[in-house]
Design a protein that fits this description.
Shape: globular
Number of helices: 10
Distance between the termini: 24 Å
Strand order of the largest sheet: 3-4-2-5-1-6-7
Strand content: 15-25%
CATH class: Alpha Beta
CATH architecture: 3-Layer(aba) Sandwich
Helix content: 25-40%
Radius of gyration: 17 Å
Order of helices and strands: HEHEHHHEEHEHEHEHH
CATH superfamily: P-loop containing nucleotide triphosphate hydrolases
Number of domains: 1
């Protein structure tokens, strides 16, 4: 994560808003999704987990992108059983979850754990009993303060909509500059049809020089505080 105070505060604000979201009052599992690839959802998932840890919570990161596995590559996880084997009841959660060290360097950090996507290809999702899968994820979630499931793009694969049925809430990531309004609307409509609440949208990769000035009237506060 960037060390800039503006960047850290953006994650703090997102984490705080999620803590206050009504659908997460009785649950803690979040699907991080996007309409299309390369909108930054994996980076957001990782940053949110680190922010939760720095706030003293334990966080579980789950790689739900069984096609690209960008999150698995980012944390350096070896080939192992993971989400799909757990959902198929072929492995216990304890076999698939491992701690990640060095992400949140703070004496009061809660810690971040990781579950890879698994060894099986996504075609095996068709064999999952999704009612049992939701029960399994709820059971896993009881051991963590926040569970973050990084999904494949909604319009690129049906996997994200399947995962949306087992979490408590969804965060939709929109990449500034490459976002298509019609595609975002389609993704939102598909999520709404599932019934899992969308608790927020994050505009990612915003560049004031390209996209115009942002609404940050207190930006100078950080500069003055360092002088």
């Amino acid at each position: 994560m960037s060390e800039s105070p503006e960047f850290a505060d953006a994650y703090d604000a997102l984490f705080g808003a999620l803590r206050l979201a009504r659908p997460l009052a009785s649950g803690n599992s979040i699907l991080v999704a996007s309409a299309e690839p390369d909108e930054g959802k994996t980076t957001l998932s990782l940053g949110l987990a680190i922010t939760a840890s720095l706030a003293g919570q334990t966080a579980l990161l789950i790689d739900g992108d069984l096609r690209r596995s960008s999150l698995t590559a980012a944390v350096g996880s070896a080939d192992t059983v993971g989400l799909i084997e757990v959902l198929l009841s072929e492995a216990e959660a304890v076999e698939a979850i491992r701690p990640i060290t060095g992400l949140a360097d703070s004496p009061w950090a809660g810690g971040v754990s990781f579950m890879a996507g698994g060894r099986k290809p996504p075609i095996f999702l068709g064999a999952v009993d999704w009612s049992k899968a939701r029960t399994a994820l709820r059971s896993i979630s009881q051991s963590f303060g926040m569970v973050i499931l990084d999904s494949p793009p909604i319009l690129a694969a049906n996997d994200a909509l399947l995962f949306a049925t087992i979490v408590d809430a969804v965060v939709l990531v929109v990449g500034a500059g490459n976002a298509n309004l019609d595609e975002i609307r389609r993704a939102k409509e598909q999520l709404e049809a599932i019934g899992t609440p969308i608790v927020g949208a994050v505009l990612n990769r915003f560049e004031p020089k390209v996209h115009g000035p942002s609404n940050q009237p207190y930006r100078g506060y950080y500069r003055r505080s360092r002088t």
